[in-house]
Amino acid sequence: MNDNYLTVSALTRYIKRKFEMDKHLNDVWLKGEISNYKHHSRGHMYLTIKDDQARIKAVMFAGYNRTLKFEPEDGMNVLIKGEINVYEPQGQYQLYIQQMEPDGVGALYVAFEQLKDKLTKEGLFDHDRKLPLPLYPKHIGVITSPTGAAVRDILITLKRRYPIANITIFPALVQGEMAPSSIANAIKQANQLKTIDVLIAGRGGGSIEELWAFNEEAVARAIADSTIPIISAVGHETDVTIADFVADVRAATPTGAAELAVPSIQELEEKIRTWNQTLNRNMQYNLDRSAKHLERLKKSYAFRYPVQLLNQKEQDLDKLVERLAKATKQIQSNESKRYEQVMKRLTYQHPEAQRKLAEKQLVQIMERKQRAMQIIYTLKNRQFINVVEKLEVLSPLHTMKRGYSIAYGGNGSLIQSTKEIQPGEAISVKVVDGTLDCHVTGIKEDL
Description:
CATH topology of one domain: Rossmann fold
Oligomer: single chain
Strand order of the largest sheet: 1-2-3-5-4
CATH class of one domain: Alpha Beta
Number of strands: 13
CATH superfamily of one domain: Hypothetical protein af1403, domain 2
Order of helices and strands: HHEEEHEEHEHEHEHEHEHHHHHHEEE
CATH architecture of one domain: 3-Layer(aba) Sandwich
Largest sheet: 5 strands, mixed, barrel
Distance between the termini: 160 Å
Helix content: 40-55%
C-alpha cells in the first residue's frame, strides 16, 4: 500500500492553512449582491454574495453583525470587509464577514428607512393616536442631557414664557451606545410619576451619528407607549428623526419645543387685560341702559299719579270680578245642562231599561214569527191538498172504483200486453175490493 495517500481531513486542513497564510485572503474587500439571506435564531447571518458571473457563500457571526445599523435583504448591493477561509466539515471555502454596509447608500440611512417603513406599517405614525397638548400645563418634564446647550435653551424659554409652571429634568444620555435605553427609561420614569402634563424630549444639533439615539426602535416605542403627550425637539429644523414621526408634536428646535409646550404669560396677561376692558365696557353699557330705563320709569304716569292709577286699577278689578261672576254662572248653567243630558243618556242606557226594551222587542219578534208561521202553514196546507187531489185523480184505485181491474203476472209484474203471458199461466187480478187468482185459458189479441 502506498503511504502517500492523504485523508480527506488532512487535505482539507492543509488547504485551510494555505488560506490562512495568504495575506490577500485574510483582508478581503468585496462588493456584490446579497442572496439566500438567513438570520439564524442564534444571531449569526448566513448569505451568498454574487455578481453576474460568480457567487460565494458567506457568514457574519453575531459578534460582528450586532453593530449593524440596517437589516440585510436579498437583492441589496453591499460593500464587505472580511477574510476567506475553509469550513472543514464540508471542505468548502467561504467568506467570513467582519464589516458590511450598503453600496451607494449609507448604512444609517438604510437603517432609518427600514425602521421608518416598519413603524409606519404598525401605525405608530398615525395622526389619530397622537395626544393633544394641554393648554395650561402645571408640570413640564424635560428629557435631555443635563449638561447640554439644549436644556439651557429650554429652561430659559420656559421661565420667560410661563414662569408659573413646575419643571422637572429627567437626565438622559443623548449620544452613544447607551443613549437609546437611557432615553427610553427616562420616558418610562416620567410616566410613572403621574404628575407630568407634557414632556419635551430632545437634544441640540449634530451629525446623523450624534443624533442616532433618536432613530432607535426602543426610543420610538417608548414615545408611542407614553400616556403623556411628548414634544420631539432633536437637532435643527432640517434634522428629522424617527422620534419626530412618533411624537405627538414635532418642534424644529429645543427652543421651539419650549414655545409649543407653554403659552406666553405676557400674551395671557394681555388677553386678560383686553377681556377686563371689554367686561368693563359691557358693564358700563348695561349700567347706563338700566339708568335710562329707571329714569323713564320715574317719569311714567304710574309714578307721577299713583292714586289715579290705583283708582283706575280698582275699577278694572271690579269689571274683571263682574266678568268672572258672569262667566262662572254661565259655566254652571252649561254644566247643569250637560249634566241633565248625561243623566238622560245614562237612564236610557241603564240595564233595567235595556232589559225592558229587549223584552218588548222580543215579544214583537215572536208575534211576527207566529204570524209568519201561520201564513206559511196555510199556504203549505193548500199546496198539500192540491197535490193529494191530483194524486187521487191519477191513482189506480180511483180508476178501479169506476169498474176497472189490474192484472199481474206470476212474478208480480204488471201485465200490459198479451205478449207478456202464455196460456195456462197463473195471474192475479186486482179489483177494488180484493185480488182474484186466475189461470189463462186462452189469449185473444185485438186487431
